[in-house]
Design brief:
heterodimer; A: about 400 residues; alpha+beta; six-stranded mixed β-sheet; 7 helices; about 15% helix; globular; B: about 140 residues; four-stranded antiparallel β-sheet; two-stranded antiparallel ribbon; about 35% strand; elongated
Chain lengths: ~400, ~140
């Protein structure tokens, strides 16, 4: 028996909709069986709260008098990209402050804007006949700025490798602090709660879908950069390596610093914890087969981050249940593990989304276009023009 | 029976002398060396937890001071700022004594101060700078 998005939205409207989060559906299906679960449950909410470097915001400052065609822009001393129209700029999450270095970056600027804090805008220009002003210094807030929207080129990675360190020194990576001689191993993603791990072949998640984005509403705008769906998968369809990604977009107004948090990984730089929630419609029984995925079923590789090469050695595969237990074995040695993604925040987001849908405040959308299943992740090789 | 955490500093001239064993032998104290190091300029530092009779501990501290050991109460504390913490858990794999763990039920960060040996390895691993040392 198949359900359409329209039918589910009708149930949301009438208040009859049955929504579970991606953790609850596991036990529910185990007790009631796939058939019954597919019939009784209409929506399963998934979520993640994890550092996602490929994030940033487009800003339009509005025009000053006399106007300026900005050629260089700083927000609280963090450079923004303005090689587009006169007062348009993109502030990238990982861009560092020119005065404070790794302590403050683009992610902090975005968080400050969301929190309603004033941000210093400084811009310079060469001046043109139509835009005579050559410099400007002023303060903006999210209320005074003309437009501000998040546009993240790569978020919500479908699985990610765990990181460890075989070398004799502590290394500082975007996977956190890794102690020498396999002193620890860190991993990311919300595992069984994670959006793309619950819809591994993107049957319902696609371009145009409305999502929970950092406390506000957003949309999936494209597949993300480095989208790589063709990796090795388990019999159940779960990728065993970093696979699909999504690009997301959403108005900064309405977002909350509780679900978008700037962070600094020592020695690496600035990143941002992004909170994303994606509702998955239970369109048929096959969807339940995917949604019942649990941490024990999701495997990932342990990668040696001390090898400073594109291809790093692997120490085999572990599942998320092992990773979440706090200890795994690497080469027979017991190694402490830690997530760098917050499962408790992901759970919180999945429940917020669940309640919004139950209360008739969030309706589901069909994808305008699917996320590709055949895209490949190409490497960058150093070639001369002749070798190309 | 009381417990006390102390930082003992052994100057170069006594760093090779046997001293700590007397805490057991003469003062009937139970001790647990939580951390010990000898710095390049040959000063020994030790974080030690003493358990025993209060008077005996006071006498032991006197003995240590008379031998030339500088004794300080371990006043330093690791503080987790709950307003900043996002419960990611990145600090839990760094914590060798498992003072920092993620609660299996709530998935939130737990800090068990009694297990903390003040190694400070966690200080620079928190992505949102929620771990601080209180002196």
């Amino acid at each position: 028996m198949a359900k359409t998005i329209e039918e589910i939205n009708q149930k949301i409207k009438s208040g009859e909709v049955v929504v579970l989060n991606a953790e609850e559906i596991i036990d529910y299906t185990a007790k009631k069986g796939v058939k019954k679960a597919a019939k009784e449950v209409d929506v399963v909410t998934t979520a993640t709260f994890s550092p996602m470097c490929s994030s940033g915001a487009f800003l339009n400052f509005g025009h000053s008098d006399p106007p300026i065609r900005m050629t260089k822009v700083w927000l609280n001393d963090v450079p923004a990209y303005t090689g587009i129209a006169a007062v348009d700029a993109y502030i990238g999450a990982t861009e560092l402050s020119e005065t404070e270095g790794m302590k403050y970056g683009g992610a902090h600027v975005i968080q400050d804007l969301i929190s309603g804090k004033p941000v210093k805008l400084r811009a310079t220009s060469y001046g043109t006949d139509c835009y005579p002003r050559k410099e400007i210094e002023t303060y903006i807030t999210l209320d005074t700025i003309n437009q501000a929207y998040l546009f993240n080129p790569r978020n919500a990675y479908q699985n990610y490798a765990a990181a460890t360190n075989s070398s004799n020194r502590t290394i500082y990576t975007y996977m956190g602090k890794l102690l020498p001689r396999f002193g620890n191993a860190n991993f990311a993603t919300a595992g069984q709660l994670s959006p793309l791990l619950n819809d591994p072949y993107y049957r319902t998640i696609g371009i145009g879908n409305r999502i929970f984005l950092a406390g506000g509403e957003g949309y999936i705008s494209w597949c993300g950069t480095q989208h790589n769906p063709g990796v090795e998968r388990t019999a159940g369809g779960t990728p065993e390596h970093p696979a699909g990604t999504i690009a997301v977009i959403g108005n900064l107004k309405g977002m909350s610093a509780g679900y978008l948090r700037a962070c600094t990984f020592r020695g690496y730089g600035v990143s941002v914890f992004m909170g994303i929630g994606v509702p998955i419609p239970v369109i048929d029984e096959e969807m339940i087969e995917f949604l019942r995925v649990k941490n024990e079923d999701i495997y990932t590789e342990i990668i040696d981050y001390s090898v400073q090469r594109r291809n790093k050695p692997s120490y085999g595969k572990v599942n998320y249940s092992q990773l979440r237990s706090g200890k795994i074995k690497i080469n027979g040695k017991s190694v402490q593990t830690a997530p760098i993604s917050s499962y408790s925040k992901a759970l919180e987001i999945s429940n917020i989304l669940k309640n919004k849908i139950k209360d008739g405040k969030f309706y589901l959308t069909s994808p305008v276009s699917p996320i590709p299943l055949d895209e490949k992740f190409k490497s960058l090789d150093i070639l001369s023009r002749e070798e190309l | 029976m009381v417990k006390k955490k102390l930082v003992l500093s052994f100057p170069e001239k006594i760093v090779t002398k046997p001293i700590t064993y007397k805490l057991v032998k003469e003062y009937n104290l139970e001790f647990n060396i939580l951390r010990a190091e000898i710095t390049p300029n040959m000063e020994g530092r030790m974080l030690i937890e003493l358990k025993g009779d209060k008077n005996q501990i006071d006498e032991a501290v006197k003995y240590l001071s008379n031998t030339g050991v500088s004794v300080q109460e371990a006043a330093k504390d690791i503080i987790i700022d709950k307003n900043l913490c996002v419960d990611c858990g990145a600090c839990t794999s760094i914590c060798i004594t498992q003072a920092l763990t993620l609660d299996k039920k709530t998935h939130k960060l737990n800090f068990n101060k009694d297990k903390c040996i003040l190694c400070e390895l966690c200080l620079d691993c928190c992505p949102v700078s929620a771990i601080k040392v209180h002196i």
